[in-house]
Design goal:
CATH superfamily of the largest domain: Vaccinia Virus protein VP39
Bound molecules: S-adenosylmethionine
Order of helices and strands: EEEHEHEHEEHEHHEEEHHHH
CATH class of the largest domain: Alpha Beta
Shape: elongated
Number of helices: 10
């Protein structure tokens, strides 16, 4: 299915997750939540037809954007002064966000109404640039945001929750109904704010091991820690941390996962 976002101008491409914001009220709410200030270093992922780009630029004076669709890039070039809008053509999943930082502009704010098909890998990709990130504001599928902010012992709590919550403080801001987009997606969206936690909040000695442990604990949700974490820590080791080996992974806090990973050294 395709949809004329502006008849004769651009046909929305499903493969690029193109659902364009068409509600001025929602655009204002998102921009108000971001609170862009003149001179800040900000990048928008997937500017599309510019619903967020234009008001952000008005506040900031300069904005970076990353867009994969060449037709949209051509439109953006026609409408904006290159001195104000720095257009990076390509895949945000492969983009070096660190390259947008300089000595003067050492940290980066990231925003985006993200294409649903790449939202989770993109969040993980952004984690690679943690020291450079000041904050992130994203619109994502409501269910994905629910998993991002989920607390232990709930159905939504899982790998995504732990892997993001050990790096970011996250806040679900508000929901956006399908009718706010053209074409309308099938699902409701939510806007989420992510702010990196202060360095040292969680002291993970080996991130790769931590990530493997979290993945193992949630790979088979119904199995207990004594089974899922067998390759990492035995029952005695779990008990030494005050953890019951008969628990399931979904009962563990982020701090518990950190303690397990560090005990495996
Ligand atoms: N920001 C616009 C809005 O709110 O109306 C468009 C949002 S639309 C959901 C997602 C945008 O991301 C589209 O412009 C799409 O072309 C772009 N996009 C999709 N995949 C991308 C990728 N891998 N890298 C960069 N941009 C991408």
């Amino acid at each position: 299915m395709s949809f004329d976002a502006r008849p004769g101008v651009h046909v929305a491409r499903r493969r690029f997750g193109q659902n364009f914001l068409a509600s001025a009220g929602i655009v204002s709410r998102i921009v108000a939540a971001i609170r862009p200030q003149a001179g800040e270093n900000m990048v928008e992922i997937g500017p599309g037809l510019g619903a967020l780009t234009k008001p952000l630029l008005e506040h900031l004076g300069h904005l970076h954007v990353i867009e994969i669709d060449r037709d949209l890039i051509a439109r953006l070039r026609e409408c904006h002064d290159p001195g104000c809008l720095a257009i990076h053509e390509g895949d945000a999943l492969k983009f070096d966000f660190g390259a947008l930082c300089t000595e003067e502009k050492a940290s980066l704010r990231v925003v985006g109404n993200l294409p649903y098909n790449i939202s989770t890998p993109l969040l993980f990709h952004l984690c690679d640039f943690m020291p450079r990130l000041r904050d992130g504001h994203f619109m994502l599928q409501k269910e994905v945001v629910a998993r991002m902010v989920a607390v232990p012992d709930t159905a939504e709590y899982g790998r995504l929750s732990v892997m993001l919550q050990y790096r970011f403080q996250m806040e679900r801001l508000f929901d956006v109904p399908p009718g706010a987009f053209r074409p309308a997606p099938k699902v409701t969206s939510s806007v989420v704010r992510m702010i990196p936690l202060p360095a040292g909040t969680y002291d993970v000695h080996d991130e790769t091991r931590f990530s493997r442990i979290v993945a193992a604990a949630f790979a088979q949700r119904r199995k207990t820690l004594r089974n899922t974490l067998r390759d990492f820590l035995d029952e005695t080791g779990l008990k030494a941390l005050g953890l019951d080996p008969g628990l399931r992974g979904e009962r563990l806090s982020v701090a518990d996962f950190v303690a397990i990973a560090n005990a495996c050294q």
